Amino acid sequence: MDSLHQAQQVVFAVDMLLHPEGGQHDASFRHVGAGALNVIQVDRLGQAFSSNKVLDCGSERGSARSGSRSQTTNRNKLAQSFPTEERMNPAREPAPEGPPLLAIDGTQARITLRRPSLRNSLNDEDLGTLLAHFAQVDADPGVRVLVLGADTHGQARPVFSAGYHVGGLDKPGSGPQRFEKIPDALAALRPITVCAMGGSVYGGATDLVLACDLRIALAGGEWRMPAAALGLHYYPSGLRRYVARFGIDLAKRAFLTAQPLPVELLAAQGLFVQLAGRDDFDAAVDTLVAQVAALAPLAAQATKRSLNEIAAGRDDEAAMRERERLTQASADFAEGRRAFAERRPPQFHGR
Fold it and tell me: What is the pTM of this model?
């Protein structure tokens, strides 16, 4: 049995625990057959990722039969079935799986989880890669926004991440204490962070979502925290984030029932900026990222820091007054006032 198959079996076992009713575990590793065309999108950073849409060539919507029509004509007709911002290349192979990938394009950075066949579960290599990516992003003064997303290609039901891979729990120096460093580092980043939660989320990965500043979720997904069902007391910083974002009652519901929570319930509590359907999800993320990237970076990042300190009970009046003074004296503030008077979009440079 090769290592990939062994890993799939481990995730399969955890999935059976999380979904004893069935209906999801068997589809997670199902390969798309020759009778389907995978729709591949290219985001604004030029990085390919899956829209998790599968066009069945035998269906009424996607019928693309050979015959007298050319292959080019078939592809053009198929492409018309989807929004124009999506690019489809039926012949293209899925992007290779591996550690999280970082792409930086000007003021925007994107980190993509890339193990869809394992429901984007995270192993120790992935954790180290995420910490390195976070450090690189934080050290780049030109980056204003970081998007955390996931490749859900080939999944019957999209899963943003199934959390920490249980295979690492018995390794020395691994487990919850190692995983805790990842959301803590993510929450402390200088740029504004946006989670593009394009599927359901489980276990420790829920804390990655909570560690982001802003979140957009794919409608119809679920959120599950099974720590107590596995016999585990969750780590302290994660519990604090849950109580801060959920409130004590909903946090207790998540931990003390270990039952899935629909994202619609969490959206009603204000956890997400927006819920979006599959057709609108990428455009919704792009719109939010563009809005955040257009803000004055000095003011936005200083305000983020102050808000986080207030939420943690560590606010310092003198420090916040100093940040206020620095932004008032900045070239960005002068540009913002000029742009307002001239009725044009401001051009901020972070100084």
Answer: 0.73
